[in-house]
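Re: that backbone. Tokens:
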């Protein structure tokens, strides 16, 4: 009879441990998703790069973009043309899209999207816009207010 009681007591103790572990995991997941949802739940972002040249140049803006898991290829953008894509953040929060731009003799490689920099600045609506002009690269999260991020050189 003592063995049965000990076995039941042990079983009851094991259940308590399992329930405690599940509870701790659930709390961790909830807190992580509340405080860092972009790095956990696969939030969708939109990135758009626009040729904003205004000098009626016959030279296209050539763009090549890729991420750590995807080669998106190259495009030649005339004035006003754009290149855009959407993606969901991965569970590690390591999404990183790099683009290389070429216009005439100028060439510039830049981070079109990088989690640590862009999770907040792409706004509540998760929109990241780039306007490439003769004097540099401008960023916006609403396509109205543009801020120059950097120059060609």
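Recovered sequence:
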């Amino acid at each position: 009879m003592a063995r049965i009681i000990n076995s039941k007591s042990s079983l009851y103790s094991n259940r308590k441990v399992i329930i405690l572990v599940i509870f701790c995991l659930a709390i961790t997941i909830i807190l992580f998703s509340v405080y860092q949802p972009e790095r956990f739940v696969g939030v969708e972002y939109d990135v758009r790069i626009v040729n904003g040249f205004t000098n009626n140049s016959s030279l296209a803006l050539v763009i090549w973009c890729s991420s750590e898991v995807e080669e998106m290829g190259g495009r030649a953008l005339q004035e006003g043309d754009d290149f855009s894509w959407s993606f969901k953040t991965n569970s590690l929060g390591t999404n990183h899209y790099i683009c290389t731009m070429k216009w005439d003799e100028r060439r510039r490689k830049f981070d079109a999207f990088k989690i640590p920099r862009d999770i907040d600045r792409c706004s509540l609506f998760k929109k990241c816009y780039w306007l490439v002009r003769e004097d540099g690269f401008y960023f916006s999260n609403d396509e109205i207010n543009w801020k120059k991020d950097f120059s060609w050189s």
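The chain has a mean pLDDT of 85. The CA atoms of residues 127 and 142 lie 7 Å apart.
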